[in-house]
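SEQUENCE-TO-STRUCTURE ENTRY
===========================
What this section holds: a protein sequence and its matching fold, both as plain text.
Question of interest: how does this chain fold, as expressed in backbone structure tokens?
***
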Amino acid sequence: MPSVELDEETIERLEALRVEDESYDELVTELINIYETSEYTMFHAGD
């Protein structure tokens, strides 16, 4: 699995979004899903 280096500000922002014992993997996966859903919605909004 690739590794990613994050700056301190990004880590703080991720910490603020985490719920209880949610892992960073779970949080990033959720953010990606939200992004993909938004992108899909915007793509099909003109239909």
